[in-house]
Amino acid sequence: MKTPDRTNAAALTPAEHRTAVAQETARFVAAVKDADLGTAVPSCPGWTLADLVKHTGSVQRWFSVLLHTRIQEPPRGREVDLRLPEQEDGYADWLAESETVAADAFAATDPNLPMWAWGADQHARFWARRMLFETLLHRADAELALGLRPTIDRPLAVDGIDEFLVNLPFASFFAPKVANLRGPDRTIRFRTTDGDDDWLVRLRPDGFGLDTGHPATDTANATVQGAAADLLLLVYGRLAHDAQELSHEGDESLLAQWFSNSAF
C-alpha cells in the first residue's frame, strides 16, 4: 500500500491542535451541559449522548496515557482509570476534566518526539491531531442529535480532511472495509468551494493513497465539491455525497465504492 503524503500546506501546527482540543471540548460541553443524555445520536447508531460523551472523554484520557508513556509499539490494552462519575449528570463536567488531563499530557510531551502511532506520522504530534478530530466530530454528532447545525471553523475543517485522507490507508485494523478501496488506477478529487484546497485520491490494484503535486486541472474520474466544513462531515459519513450542500460529478459507481467503505 502506498504511503500517502500531505497535499495541503495549510495544515495546523501542533500548538494549534492542542489549543483547538480545548476549544472543541468546551463547545462539546456547552452543547450537552443541560441536554437529556438519553437522547439518541443518529450519526452514531445505537449510541446516546451519554455514550458519546463517555467515548470522547475516554479517548482523550487514553491518548494522554499514550503520550505520558511515550509508547514505541502498539499498546496491548486500553486500561485507563477513567474516573467516570456514577451519575450521568456529572458527565459534562467529567468531559471538561478530560481535556485538562489531555492538556497536562501535551505540556509534558515534545510534539516532535518519535512515538508509535497507528497512522502516517510517527511522532507525538499525531495524537494531539487525532484527539482534536475525535473531539470535533463527536461535538458535531452531539449537535446534530440535538437538532443543531454544527459550525466548524474553516481552518480546522481543511486540516481535518487532510488528516482523515492521510491516515485512512492505515485504518484497516479498526475499519476493515478500507481494504475494498482499490481499483484499476481510478481517481477521486475532493475540492473546497470556499478556498483552493484540493485532494486527489488514487485507487490502485494494491490499495489507495493521496497523489501530491497534481495540477488542479488534472481530470479525475469523480469529483466532489463543497465548503470545507461540509466536506469534513462528508468524509466522516455524517453527510451524503448527494446532499444539497455538495456537488458531485463523474463515476457514480466509484463514489459509491468510496463512501460505502471509507467512513469510520
Query: What is the straight-line distance between the termini?
Result: 19 Å
The CATH class of the largest domain turns out to be: Mainly Alpha
| Oligomerization category of the chains in this entry | single chain
CATH architecture assignment name of the largest domain: Up-down Bundle
**SS-based structural class?**
alpha+beta
Question: What Rg, in angstroms, do the CA atoms define?
Answer: 18 Å
Portion of residues within helices:
40-55%
The major sheet is characterized as: 5 strands, mixed
Q: What is the count of DSSP helices, taking H or I runs of 4+ residues? A: 7
Label the overall shape: globular
What's the total count of β strands?
5
Low-pLDDT runs: 1-9
Q: What is the N-to-C order of secondary-structure elements (H for helix, E for strand)?
A: HHHHHEEEEHEH
Please report which band the strand proportion falls in: under 5%, 5-15%, 15-25%, 25-35%, 35-45% or over 45%.
5-15%
Report on this model:
By secondary structure, this protein is of the alpha+beta class. It has two domains: 14-151, Up-down Bundle (Four Helix Bundle (Hemerythrin (Met), subunit A)); 159-259, Nonspecific Lipid-transfer Protein, Chain A. 41% of the residues lie in helices and 11% in strands. The chain has seven helices and five strands. The protein has helices at 14-32, 49-69, 91-107, 125-145, 154-167, 228-235, 252-259, and strands spanning 186-192, 198-204, 207-211, 222-226, 247-250. Helix 1 packs antiparallel against helix 3. The longest helix is centred in the first third of the chain and has 21 residues, at 49-69. It is globular. The model is unreliable at 1-9 (pLDDT under 50).
